[in-house]
Structures are given as C-alpha cells and as structure tokens.
Amino acid sequence: MLSPLSRVLLSLLTLPLAFLANGAFAATPNVLIFTATTGFRHDSIPVAVEALQQQAERANVNWTHTEDSSHFNDGALEAYDGVVFLSASGEVFNDQQKAAFQSWLNKGGNFVGIHSATDCLLKTDFYRREIGAYFDYHPDIQEASVNVIDPGHPSTDHLPRPWIVRDEWYNFKSDPRDVGAVVILSADENSYEDNGPRNPAQGTPHPTAWFQERGAGVEEGQTAGRSFYTSLGHLNETWQDETFMTHVLGGLSWALQSNTTRAFNASGVVGAIGDPSDTTASGDSTSQTESETETSLTEVANPSSDTTTTDDGAESSAAHSTVSAAVGLFTILNALHLVHREL
C-alpha cells in the first residue's frame, strides 16, 4: 500500500497530464483570412468568407478577416498561426509588407492559398515558391473530373473517385512539383474543353491542388511552416458544397498542424497570442476600426452583429482554460484530502 506522501506525489504528478488532457497548454490557432484584390475580384468572396465563418467551431480556429494590407507587419502577423489568401489577386503589398510576410513564413507561419491566390504578387519570387506556381489562364467554366492522386491527405480522404466538379480549370505557368510541392488532385484534361495553348511547363498530371511540407518560399535554415493550395473555389455554389468545404478545411487543418507555431509548440515564435483583432497593440502602424478596414467573419455574415468570430474564439478558449484549471484544482484538493484522511 502506498504511503500518504507517495499518494500525494502520485496525484501531483498527474496534474500536468490533467491539464494536457483538457487542453490547458493547447491554444486555439489564430487564422487570418486575406481577401484584398487589385486585379480581378471574385463575386464569391463574401460567400466564401461567410462559409468559413460558419465552420469556425468545426475547424477549431479563431478567424480574423481583413482586406487591409497594412495588417501585414511584424507585430500584427506575430499573433497568427495561419494565413489564408482567399481569392486575393494582384499586387497587394508594398516592399515592407512583403518583407514582413516572408519573415513570418521564415518563423514558422503556415499558408493556405485558394483559387486566384496564384494570381497574386506576380513579381514576388518568394511568394511564387510559397504558393507553388502562378496562374496562366482558364477556359470557360464547366464540369470536369478531378482525379485524387493522394487519397490519404486530410483534404482528399473523403473525396469520391473521380470527383465531378463545376468550376474554373486553372492552367499554370510552371509545375509546382519543381519547387517541391506534392500534387494531390489533378484535372482530367479529357473531361472538359480547353482550346487554349496549355503550357507544358505546368507538368503532368494537370495540377489542381497541392501541398508543401516545408514552405518553399522561405530562407534556408529557417523554421518554416506548411503550405497548401487548391485552385478550386470560383463559384458561389462551390462554397455551399459540403464536399468542397471538407476539402478546404482538411487542407487548413493539415497546414496548421505543422508544429511550428505556438498553438502546438511551446517553442514557436509566432501564433496564438493575444487578441489578433487588436492591430494597434500588435504593431500596426495605423489605427483602424472594424467598420473601416478589418471586418470579422461574423460581421460579413451578419453586419448588425457586435460579436466577432475572434471574440467568440477567445471566449471559448477562456472557458476551456477555466475547465482545465478546475480539473487541476480538483486534483490538488483530492491529493490533500488523501493526506488528511490517512495522517
């Protein structure tokens, strides 16, 4: 039989496990959705933002949405585990913002690109390597077959084979495999019409979605996060399709689990700290209001709402931590009770 002291020690040793089991040391990842455009602007952007907002709990993330490029500074980016370029297009950054974005990637930030994200920052080499390839052209919107090359990836393991999708079928100026990307979906070129001059440099099979275990757009020797890209997502109806949403959320979930940010790694230097919507406190050079420049996902879905997705996530995280603390306190009190009973 264990002595009272031994029981106390054993109970206290289980305290860290109780905290870990209840997530006291795990933070909900902060993810920035960026939808700025200086090129073509997709009508589906508001629908896509709302669709992601509705999946906040399922995705287990704190969303923040912005179209303000000045958010890309070292202080503001530090709070994010992931950045999603959602149909962003054109030259959306100045040199300082590009440098801040690359620095964040170098420190372990995770990146997700969707649809026209490959038609963004076309003069920025590190971004080309991070996204994998640049957009070339697309034929008319039509239905086509998508082949699942890697059925084991979280973004593809649920997909039918083949997956029939109506969307824009992007062609690219280069092959993402040339920068180390792993193509997981390919368009069946025999299943749709494309009379354009396909660039053979994009490789075979036709890349449609891919990932990089280590973002290619960062400097050698740095701690880099993951990169995921899907070329789908042009139409409003696409963002209302459960199969597509599971594809996108699977890619995001995979990217966030890179173990390079604070949400999953105590030694991470970016991610999951403070209130990501507080751009002034985090180093933004210009103070902005939510109504002017940074719109939360909840506001996109319901402009009259005063509750942001970021705040909801913070409340959920705080409640989660409270439960964890209660479990830890119960463990300590139970240990003390054992001592009192047996002494």
TrEMBL record:
N-terminal signal peptide: 1-26
Keyword Signal: yes
Bias-annotated ranges (Low complexity): 285-299
Listed SUPFAM superfamilies: Class I glutamine amidotransferase-like (SSF52317)
Keywords, sorted A to Z: Signal
Biased composition regions of type Polar residues, renumbered to the chain: 301-311
Pfam family, one: ThuA
Region (Disordered): 190-209, 274-319
Domain ThuA-like, residue spans: 30-255
Gene3D superfamilies: 3.40.50.880
The name this protein goes by in its record: Trehalose utilization-domain-containing protein
